[in-house]
Each structure stands twice: as structure tokens, then as C-alpha cells.
Design a protein that fits this description.
The structure holds two protein chains of two kinds.
Chain A: E1 2-5, H1 6-20, E2 24-28, H2 44-48, E3 53-55, H3 60-72, E4 76-80, H4 91-98, H5 101-104, E5 114-119, H6 134-138, E6 144-146, H7 151-163, E7 168-173, E8 180-183, E9 197-200, E10 205-209, H8 212-225, E11 231-235, E12 238-240, H9 244-254, E13 257-264, H10 269-280, E14 290-294, H11 303-309, H12 313-325
Parallel strand pairs in A: 2-3, 2-4, 4-5, 5-7, 6-7, 10-11, 10-13, 13-14
Antiparallel strand pairs in A: 1-8, 6-12, 9-11
Helix pairs in contact in A: 1-7, 3-4, 8-12
Chain B: H1 5-30, H2 46-54, E1 61-64, H3 69-74, H4 79-86, E2 110-113, H5 121-133, E3 140-145, H6 152-163, E4 168-174, E5 177-178, E6 181-182, H7 183-186, H8 192-198, E7 203-207, H9 211-226, E8 232-237, H10 255-262, H11 266-276, H12 282-305
Parallel strand pairs in B: 1-2, 1-3, 3-4, 4-8, 7-8
Antiparallel strand pairs in B: 5-6
Helix pairs in contact in B: 1-2, 1-11, 1-12, 2-9, 4-12, 5-6
Classes of the chains: A alpha/beta, B alpha/beta.
């Protein structure tokens, strides 16, 4: 174990996997000499050189398409898109090509491709650099979507994604890059895709979250202690496919569920989990499912407006407490 | 250019295979035997597919389009499995998951057939990149239509291939129309090859109905790519005899215009040349046509007799690994 930042954990995962497999390459805007716009690929170019760490033009569609073409013909590319907001520029390549090519060709190909990006609000980057768009990708069959919250998961999920023979979108969080945590040293530290984890055991209510809002949820759980509410907090880690088993098992114990996400409330992760609960866990519910999410507005610039838009621990704590005060 | 008698025969045979495959497919579509949208036929454009693919090695990559039957056949695909795919059968190349627009045989290094205009161009960049990285010495040919030169991926991909000097041959089949719109009304600058030249690569505009001219051009561009000099673009001017799809009534153009192009039929033009030069006689041509018709009829029989995919298998092939 070593304490390191989330961004260094990302760099360590990429470095280890590039050392392990000579066919792993890294490509994207400013990922090489500059070390990445979020400094998450620092030192990788110096170690592996321009052949394996490829600075690209600002051509998002061609970055993803080229990575796909390379993945279809023997390489294992990691393609970085600087902000998840820029996925709009390569959505065809992701939605119509990457996600579908294996199926359309009847299994003739594998797609060992990782798309790395970062999202999230909280830094006053305004409407085109702050979004949480995971549900766009989760809605596409053929893609897996992971969102690490801790440095350990930033390493372990990314390593698993790089070794996967199927396309995985790894959405990191811009606010978390500087956060520190214990990260296992092992080259074989792999966090499974599709598995959620109970990060805070509790007995009264299940709070499901992921990425940065996991930490707001954990703070909310502490706020609720004084109200006599013992929260069980689950880190989803993978958005698609959802690990409903872990959520249902927790709900059996608590009977109450709050879903916290930083994306917009409408058509969100919370909506999907709620629907799953209606189908698979309705009888477990002692109260209606609650959702805490961003308002259905573009993310505003002014810090005071942004704060009003996105969830935080106080908003989450209120939503939790409300489940115990309603008639 | 030295072309053996056998090579001439092969090219002519391949052009006939494309022509008869699609003419029969058109009849099957009219007889309502083909599910889905009307197939996109390349009748009239056979010289481009055959001229280019004849210049390739098996290891070379090909990316094709929604109008791709000719490219796939010319690269060596099996007609039975192609037609079975178009009919949605289990024995098709994609086990019925793809249909007419997504036929590819990856074992022949045809790595994609795209229903999105311009969708294949960036993928070609990646195939070329990996060929260089892995020292395969393979060239990647990316076919696309005239209308694809107006989509962003065309520009992103040509630029990327050029800055990295990748072994790509961009082959634009300029068949004059993007569905109903004439390229004359849609193309600023009047030259698709010229757009490639603007990205610093050699660009050539050629007669796409002259198979020998296409072949000669392709040999040059493929050699240029294989020797590490980088990409080039070939704009082959041709014409699709049918509409965008087989159901299109072609109200946007005149029958006179169509007849002018039909008079420039690439197959008749080539067969006449070969007869005149004493390379392939009229009798030989007739027997080649007969052989091709037999192959198509066998494919129709094979496809009709093939089983449909089982609905129980509908979720197969989404991912290679279960979690």
C-alpha cells in the first residue's frame, strides 16, 4: 500500500499495463509530452516514447475511430477524451461503431478498447465542461461504464478495463484527481467491473452513490448519525451493468433507499435503479425510493449557482431524514 | 503495365460476380424476399471495387460502406454467406445480426462495413496505425462515397493519416449523388481528390468505369503507402445505375443522364477491350457469365435453405466476456 493521489493512481495503472503488454498504447489530446490536461498521464510519455503515447490533433471522432481500428487489428488502445462533454463530437464512433461492431459482425471481432475521460461539476467550469453524462453511455448496449471514486479504484478499475476484451468507458472525476488514498502496490490489483461495494455498513437506510458524490453521501451519513439514522453507503463503481444484487441485499436489511448522483435527475441512474427496485425489490420497501441529483438545468458558472444545482452532503442528509419523518 | 491473361480473366469474373449478385438481389427485393430497407446497389460501379481490390494482398485491410457488396466480393468473400446475411439467416457472415450494410469477412481483413456515412474513415486510420506498430506492412483501403467528403470524419481522418504518414489509400467512389442530391450542388471546390491534396497527400481523379485505369492507379497508391510514404486519395468518377436504394424512383435525375452512363458500362467496356486484344473471347465471356450465374443461383439456394437464427441467441455476440 502507498498513499497517492487519484491522478497518480491513474498514471500508475496505465504504466503498469503498458509494461505488462507491449500492445497497449495511449492516445489523445495532450496526453504525451504535456502529461494530460488533468496531469493524469504525467511521466508516461517519458517512459514509453512517442510510438506508444500518441498526441493527437483535436479530432475526437478520429481519436475514438482510430483507437477502434487499432483495437480491431491487434492493439489494446487507451483513448483519452479530455472532457466527457466533448463526447458529443465522437458520439457516432462510440454509439454506432465501438459499441456495435462486435454484434453487427456476429462476433467476428473483439474490441479491447478503453475510453478514458473525466466529468463532474464543482469547479465552476460552466455548462460545457462540468457535465455528468454517464447515462448516455449506459443506455447503449455493448458498452461498459465504470466511475471510480477512490484512488485505489481509479487504479484497479482502469487496469481491469485495459485487460478486458470488450470496450469499457472509464469516467474519472475532475474534482477527485488531487484526492489521496491508499493504493495497493500490486501489479495484479484488479477491481472487478460490474461489482458494487458496501463502503459504510448500516442498518436503517441504503444510500447508493458513485464517483465524487460517494464522498458527499458518506458525509451525509455522518450528519444523520445525530438523528439516530444509521446509513449503509454503497459505492456503485460500475454504472453499466448495474450491480443490483448488492443493492437488493442491502435493501433487505434497511428497507429504505436513497440514490445519489451528480447527473441530472430526469432519466438518470436513480431513475433506472428505482425502476429495477420496482421490478425486483418492491416488497422490501418500507418507504418510497428517494433520489438526490442535479437539477435539470445546464450546469451554471457562478459558484453560488453551481452549488444550487448539484447535490451535496446537506441535500443528501435532508433527503435521508425525510424518509423517516414522512407519515 | 504487365497484366497476365489470368489476371484479366479474374478481374472480369469478379466484375461479373458483383453485377450478377446485385442484379439478382434487386429482383429478390422486388419479389419481397429481402427483409429490411432496400439494399444499396453498386451496379455500374464494379470497376472501382475490382480494380482496387485486385491491387491488394490478402493481409491488406478494407473498410467498406453501406454500398459495399462489390468491395466485399472483390476482396474474396463467399457469396453464399453474403446472401444468407442479407436474408437474415444464421449461416450469414454475421449470423443475421448485420444484414446488407454490415457484411464483412474479418478473416479476409475486411474489418467493417458501415451504415454511417463517413463512419469507417477514422477506423481506417487505426488499422493503418496498428499495421505500422506491429510491422505487418499491410495497407488499409477505405472506400467511401462522394457525400462522405462533406462529413467531419473525412477531414479529421485524412489529416490524421497525413500527419502520421500512415499506409492508407482513401478511395472515393464519386457516383455523383448523395441519395437525391447531386454532388455538383453539394461540393465546394469541385474536387474531392483536391481536398486530399490540401491535406498534403497525392490526390488523383480518375475514370472509375475503367477497371484497368483503376487497377493501375491503385497499384501506384498501394505501393506508395506500403513503402512508408503515407496516404493518398483516389477519386474515381462513376455512376450508380439504380437509386440510392432499390426502391428509389430517381426523380432527381433524368433517364437521358442514366443512359449516358450506362453506355459507359465498365463491364462491357472491359469485355470489348479484352475481345479486341484477343485476351478473352466472346465465347469465353459467355461461359464466365454462365459460371457466375450458377454461383449466384447456388447462393440463392443455399440462403433460402439456410435456417433462421434462433431467437434464443439474440443476446449472443454483444460482449466477448461475461462478467
Amino acid at each position: 500500500m502507498a498513499e497517492m493521489t487519484y491522478r497518480n493512481a491513474v498514471a500508475q495503472a496505465i504504466t503498469e499495463e503498458m509494461e505488462r503488454d507491449p500492445n497497449v498504447i495511449l492516445m489523445g489530446e495532450d496526453v504525451g509530452r504535456f502529461g494530460g490536461a488533468m496531469a493524469a498521464t504525467k511521466g508516461i510519455y517519458e517512459k514509453f516514447g512517442a510510438k506508444r503515447v500518441i498526441d493527437t490533433p483535436i479530432s475526437e471522432a478520429a481519436i475514438i475511430g482510430a483507437a477502434l481500428g487499432a483495437a480491431l487489428t491487434g492493439l489494446r488502445p487507451i483513448a483519452e477524451i479530455m472532457f466527457v462533454d466533448f463526447m458529443t463530437c465522437c458520439m457516432d464512433q462510440i454509439a454506432n461503431q465501438v459499441a456495435k461492431v462486435r454484434y453487427m459482425l456476429g462476433g467476428q471481432v473483439n474490441v479491447p478498447l478503453v475510453i478514458r475521460t473525466q466529468g463532474g461539476a464543482g469547479k465552476s467550469y460552466a455548462a460545457q465542461h462540468s457535465q455528468n453524462l454517464e447515462v448516455w453511455f449506459a443506455a447503449i448496449p455493448g458498452l461498459r461504464v465504470v466511475m471510480p471514486a477512490t484512488p485505489a479504484d481509479a487504479k484497479g478499475l482502469l487496469k481491469t478495463a485495459i485487460r478486458s476484451n470488450d470496450p469499457v468507458m472509464v469516467i474519472e472525476n475532475k474534482v477527485l484527481y488531487g484526492e489521496k488514498g491508499e493504493v495497493p502496490d500490486s501489479n495484479e490489483y484488479l477491481v472487478p467491473i460490474g461489482k458494487a461495494t458496501v463502503v459504510r455498513p448500516g442498518k436503517n437506510v441504503t444510500v447508493v452513490s458513485y464517483s465524487r458524490q460517494l464522498f458527499e453521501s458518506l458525509k451525509a451519513a455522518e450528519i444523520c448519525v445525530s438523528a439516530g439514522i444509521d446509513c449503509e453507503v454503497i459505492d456503485l463503481k460500475t454504472i453499466s451493468p448495474l450491480d443490483m444484487n448488492t443493492i437488493l441485499k442491502s435493501l433487505e436489511k434497511t428497507g429504505r433507499l436513497v440514490i445519489v448522483e451528480e447527473g441530472h435527475k430526469s432519466f438518470g441512474v436513480g431513475a433506472e435503479i428505482s425502476a429495477e427496485i420496482m421490478e425486483k425489490g418492491f416488497d422490501l420497501l418500507e418507504a418510497p425510493v428517494a433520489r438526490v441529483a442535479s437539477l435539470d438545468t445546464p450546469i451554471p458558472f457562478s459558484p453560488v449557482l453551481e452549488k444550487a444545482t448539484i447535490p451535496n452532503s446537506d441535500k443528501i442528509a435532508s433527503a435521508i431524514k425525510k424518509l423517516f419523518t414522512a407519515a | 503495365m504487365n497484366i497476365t491473361v489470368q489476371q484479366h480473366e479474374q478481374m472480369l469474373q469478379q466484375m461479373l460476380r458483383v453485377r450478377h449478385f446485385e442484379e439478382n438481389l434487386y429482383q429478390m427485393y422486388l419479389a419481397k424476399q429481402v427483409p429490411g430497407m432496400s439494399p444499396h446497389l453498386s451496379v455500374g460501379q464494379e470497376a472501382v471495387a475490382v480494380g482496387v481490390c485486385t491491387a491488394l494482398d490478402e493481409k491488406d485491410y478494407v473498410l467498406t460502406t453501406h454500398r459495399g457488396h462489390g468491395h466485399v466480393l472483390a476482396k474474396g468473400a463467399n457469396m453464399n454467406r453474403m446472401l444468407a446475411e442479407i436474408l437474415g439467416k444464421e449461416t450469414g457472415y454475421c449470423h443475421g445480426r448485420g444484414g446488407s450494410m454490415h457484411i464483412a469477412d474479418v478473416s479476409l481483413n475486411i474489418i467493417g462495413a458501415n451504415g454511417i456515412v463517413g463512419g469507417g474513415l477514422p477506423i481506417a486510420v487505426g488499422a493503418a496505425l496498428s499495421s505500422v506498430y506491429l510491422n505487418k506492412n499491410a495497407v488499409t483501403v477505405c472506400f467511401f462515397g462522394d457525400a462522405a467528403s462533406n462529413i467531419g470524419t473525412f477531414h479529421e481522418s485524412l489529416n490524421m493519416a497525413a500527419i502520421w504518414k500512415l499506409p492508407v489509400v482513401w478511395v472515393c467512389e464519386n457516383n455523383q449523388y448523395g441519395l437525391s442530391t447531386s454532388i455538383k450542388d453539394m461540393l465546394a471546390g469541385n474536387s474531392i481528390a483536391g481536398r486530399g491534396i490540401a491535406y498534403g497527400m497525392p490526390g488523383y481523379t480518375i475514370d472509375g468505369n475503367d477497371v484497368l485505369g483503376v487497377y493501375e492507379m491503385a497499384i501506384k497508391a498501394v505501393e506508395y503507402a506500403r513503402s512508408g510514404k503515407g496516404p493518398s486519395i483516389i477519386e474515381a468518377k462513376t455512376y450508380r445505375w439504380y437509386g440510392h436504394g432499390a426502391s428509389d424512383n430517381r426523380s432527381y435525375r433524368t433517364r437521358d443522364e442514366e443512359n449516358e452512363w450506362k453506355a459507359k458500362c465498365p463491364i462491357i467496356k472491359y469485355a470489348d477491350y479484352l475481345a479486341k486484344e484477343g485476351i478473352v473471347s466472346k465465347t469465353q465471356f459467355d461461359s464466365m457469365e454462365k459460371k457466375t450465374q450458377e454461383e449466384v443461383q447456388a447462393a440463392i439456394k443455399f440462403s433460402n435453405e439456410s435456417p433462421l437464427p434462433s431467437p434464443d441467441t439474440v443476446c449472443n455476440y454483444i460482449f466477448s466476456e461475461t462478467l
